[in-house]
From TrEMBL:
Signal peptide: none annotated. This is UPF0145 protein FD29_GL002137. It comes from the Bacteria. SUPFAM superfamilies: YbjQ-like. It comes from Companilactobacillus mindensis DSM 14500. Pfam families: YbjQ_1. Belongs to the UPF0145 family. InterPro entries: UPF0145_dom_sf, UPF0145_YbjQ-like. HAMAP family: UPF0145 (MF_00338).
């Protein structure tokens, strides 16, 4: 952060694994046949991202951090209907 002195506290994470219900999975399967955006999965990833960010923030607060730098996301499919999202970064304390 330009102009700010800080010390590194450590790594922080926010993790979640989400799944949609069976009805939405069936609808997504039909959409897969004709193509286009599968809104149920877009919603799933948006929800997962938001939960992962909230958990990352809480992890940083629990460590006494003032900010998180170099934050990143990672995601992966566990199965056809489950997604894992990880938010991670470095917790810092301003001097």
């Amino acid at each position: 952060m330009p102009g700010r002195d800080y010390e590194i506290i450590g790594e922080v994470f926010g993790l979640t694994t989400q799944s949609k219900n069976v009805v939405k999975n069936i609808g997504a399967g039909f959409k897969n046949i004709v193509g286009g955006e599968i809104k149920a999965y877009t919603e799933l990833l948006t929800e997962a991202r938001d939960i992962a960010i909230d958990r990352l923030r809480q992890n940083a607060l629990d460590m006494g951090a003032d900010a998180v730098v170099m934050m990143r996301f990672d995601s992966d499919s566990i199965s056809a209907d489950m997604e894992t999202v990880a938010a991670y970064g470095t917790a810092v304390k301003f001097k």
